[in-house]
Amino acid sequence: MLPHTGLFLLWKVALQMRIRRRLKSIYSELTLNQYGVASP
Asked: What does pLDDT average to over the chain?
C-alpha cells in the first residue's frame, strides 16, 4: 500500500463531509423559506 493513499482517503472523507454539511445548510434554508419554520 502506498503511503499517500491514506492521505487521499482522508481527503476524500473530508471532502464528502464538507459537501454533506453544505447540502444540509442549503436544505435547511430551502425548508425555512418554504415553510417559514426552521427544521431541527
From this structure: 81
Q: Is the dihedral of CA 17, 20, 22, 25 positive or negative?
A: negative
Cell of 27: 436544505
User: What pLDDT sits at residue 26?
Assistant: 85
**Residues ≥6 apart with Cβ < 8 Å to 32:** 38, 39
Q: How would DSSP label each residue in the chain? A: --THHHHHHHHHHHHHHHHHHHHHHHHHHHHHHHHSS---
